[in-house]
Design a protein that fits this description.
The chain has about 350 residues and is α/β, with parallel strands linked by helices. The chain is built from eleven helices and 15 strands.
Length: about 350
């Protein structure tokens, strides 16, 4: 059984990582939080787990196989290096760092230390993303030329959290939050991004809360990625256009009004539609979920080469952040920019 130390018990630590770790059969031995209310939540949600005040104390807990960093994004790079220096395998919630150079530094440090590192790109494991990937690879759409992915919310009054209150340099904003998922998904589907055009704005928060990226992949596919907190009429989540058909997924979370009820899932076993003009065919929901990420981590840690078996290559996170960095440059100058990923392999 894999024994885990969980750093942070906020919306990510409590809401995502702890339940998934438990579902995957891992043992959460200790949780770090300095907040008394969250410490009490740990005692309720994870009976038997020790509560320690910070990462230094967590790294001192004997017998940990893995550290999971569910802390604010601006701390990820430095804290990951602490875990690597301690010789403990680490899962870092996305983003790995606030920019690609810092992320590459963490990846290089892991390689030098011989300690396993992976990044929590949990959305790769959603049944909806798996359905999109399987549909693309099936050839049913023919040659794909455009991929649209929207993550649109209606929050004219922003939440009072670090994500909304922190600057981009400190890890705040929608580019480092939602767009890191979206770029990762696009690259998983269609390969590395070659050029980016971006439009970015901060309408209600300190860092950006409204962003659009047009990413041209080296494969020739163009991904249109749009995330905003100020859309009163959210558009369909995914639309993938091919020469023979289209894959369309309306919503896969209860995170906004569904203004296209005709596109709703017919039943729980369905996961989007394949369209060919007026004809549409439901896509069967794959047997997949975010817990698969931690199941793969468990299996990786039991192998002779844990790094090679990890579910997400951490260098993927470097490329994702290089796309985000390039998007900032594009938005500042109104230009199409070439993506240059540091340490490119």
């Amino acid at each position: 059984m894999t024994t885990v130390g969980l750093a942070g018990f906020g919306s990510a630590g409590r809401g995502l990582h702890a339940p998934l770790l438990q579902q995957a059969g891992m043992t959460i031995a200790a949780v770090s939080t300095a907040d008394p209310q969250r410490a009490e939540q740990v005692r309720m949600d994870v009976p038997g787990a020790a509560v320690v005040p910070d990462l230094d104390a967590l790294l001192g807990v004997v017998g940990l196989d893995l550290i999971v960093l569910a802390t604010p994004s601006g701390r990820h790079a430095g804290q990951a290096r602490q875990c690597l220096d301690a010789g403990i395998a680490v899962v870092v919630d996305k983003p790995l760092a606030t920019d690609a150079i810092k992320a590459l530094g963490v990846v290089d440090a892991a390689r030098a230390a011989g300690v396993a590192l992976t990044v929590f790109q949990n959305r790769r494991f959603d049944a909806e993303h798996v359905a999109a990937r399987e549909t693309v690879r099936s050839g049913l759409l023919g040659e794909v030329f455009r991929h649209e992915f929207r993550w649109e919310r209606w929050r004219p009054t922003p939440k009072d959290r670090w994500r909304e209150n922190a600057s981009a340099a400190d890890g705040g904003g929608i580019l480092l939050d939602l767009l890191t998922h979206m770029v990762d998904a696009a690259v998983d589907l269609f390969g590395p991004v070659d050029t980016v055009y971006a439009e970015v704005a901060a309408r209600t928060t300190v860092a950006e809360d409204d962003a659009f990226l047009a990413c041209r992949h080296a494969s020739g596919v163009v991904s249109h990625l749009g995330a905003t907190s100020v859309s009163a009429a959210p558009g369909p989540r995914v639309r993938i256009l091919g020469r023979r058909g289209a894959f369309l997924l309306n919503q896969f979370e209860d995170d906004g009004a569904d203004i296209y009820p005709d596109l709703a899932h017919a039943d729980a076993g369905q996961c989007g539609w394949i369209y060919a003009g007026e004809q549409r065919t439901p896509v069967t929901r794959p047997s997949a979920g975010q817990v698969d990420f931690y199941r793969q981590v468990t299996r990786a840690l039991a192998t002779q080469d844990p790094q090679a078996a990890m579910p997400v290559d951490p260098y993927d996170a470097v490329h994702t952040l290089a796309v985000i960095d390039t998007a900032r440059t594009s938005a500042a100058h109104g230009t199409v920019e070439q993506v240059r990923t540091p340490g490119q392999r």
